[in-house]
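#struct-help
A.M.: can someone run this one for me? Single chain, 118 residues.
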Amino acid sequence: MLRGTVKSERIPATLHGGRPRGEHWNEAVEQGAAVAKTIAGQLTPYPRLPWSWSDQHGVTIQVCGRPDLATEYEVKGDSGSRDASVVFRRRGRVVAVVAMNSPAEFRALRQLALAAQE
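D.P.: on it. Structure tokens below:
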């Protein structure tokens, strides 16, 4: 996955500093799409927050951002029922979102996280 490696070594994470690695296949897909649009004349910046998903024991877990950088978090829903979301913040700014079995909620939260990096 060369594109993911190039991203981690060449493009700094402006929101959090450092150079995080993004190794989920969806990042390679999104990077390729952004490059193709840019080559075609439509400047398309690549979203700089990593995101991924996984199905584990009947639970779909979706993550966007860097929860490890958070100093506070807010849980919505009931994690015991396997239907919840979490917004992670640092100094009041969204740095990550996580959702369990809530794809529509995750899409909205991901946009919130992406907007916070601008």
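A.M.: thanks! Residues 49-118 form a domain with the Enolase-like; domain 1 fold (CATH 3.30.390.30).
D.P.: also worth noting: Residues 1-15 have pLDDT under 50 and may be disordered.
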